[in-house]
Every structure is written in structure tokens, then in C-alpha cells.
Amino acid sequence: MWLDNTTRDLLDSGTLERYVTENSVTGLTSNPTIFDKAIEAGPDYDADIATGKAAGGTDEGVFFDLALSDLRRAADLFAPAHARTDGVDGWVSLEVSPRERCCSSLLDVISQFNRDVLSALLHGDA
For residues 78 and 72, what is the distance between their CA atoms, to the nearest angstrom? Predict the structure, then answer.
């Protein structure tokens, strides 16, 4: 079973870890809309956004920094499922729009992820 959602609170509260251990959740997918809703829902991302912007980050750059940070944490929770199933399960995915300089951005995102379990998907809303 995959979860189609990610939030900082889901990670910080231990809820995602419980989903993995108690409910057999074996993967997670996300996209910019999901992250936008999580960012708008409360203050969980405010400090990191302010830090990224103060450091000169672009909106897109700050977004990807936040997304990759959360997805790395999720990927670490799914690593045992990935190992146990020889890579069948235990993935995290990030859908990206082909409207955003996708080729170079997508390669940059994958190279920064630093985990073997990221699936970056292009969704078809070009």
C-alpha cells in the first residue's frame, strides 16, 4: 500500500513510521500540489523557507530543498521494505510537471536526493 501524501507533521509526529510498521505502507508519492497544501496548512515549513530565501534561494530551489528533505526522511523509513522486496517496494516518488524546465531540473533533483529509492515521475499536464 502506498501513501499519496507527505507532510512535515506526518514525519515529525511519527505517524508515517507507524503507518510503515503497523499498516504495511510500503511507499509514498508526492507532488508540488501536495507540498503546497502542506506548506499552507501551518507553520511547519516557515523557518526552513525563511532560511532558504535569506540564503538567496529561488522559490523553486527552496521548494525542492524542502521536498527532498522530507522525501529523504520518508525514504529512510521505507529502506527496509526496499531491501526486503529486492526493490519492488519501498519507493518514494515525486511527480514533477513537464512545464518546469523538466529535463535539467529532474536530473538535478535526482542527483541531490542521495538515496536509491526515488522515482521521479513526469505527469502529463504539459
Answer: 10
Q: Are 9 and 40 in contact (CB under 8 A)?
A: no
- For 91, the 3-state DSSP assignment is strand
Contacts of residue 117, Cβ cutoff 8 Å, sequence gap at least 6: 75, 78, 79, 82, 90, 91, 92
pTM (2 d.p.) = 0.81
C-beta of residue 106 within 8 angstroms of C-beta of residue 120: yes
pLDDT in tens, 70-94: 988 998 999 899 889 998 888 888 8
Name the β-bridge partners of 2: 27
What letter does residue 13 receive in the DSSP assignment?
T
* Spatial distance between the Cα atoms of 106 and 113, rounded to a whole number of angstroms: 11
Q: Side by side, which strands form the sheet with 118-122?
A: 2-3, 27-30, 91-96, 118-122
Q: pLDDT tens across 12-51, in order?
A: 999 999 999 999 999 998 888 888 999 999 999 999 999 9
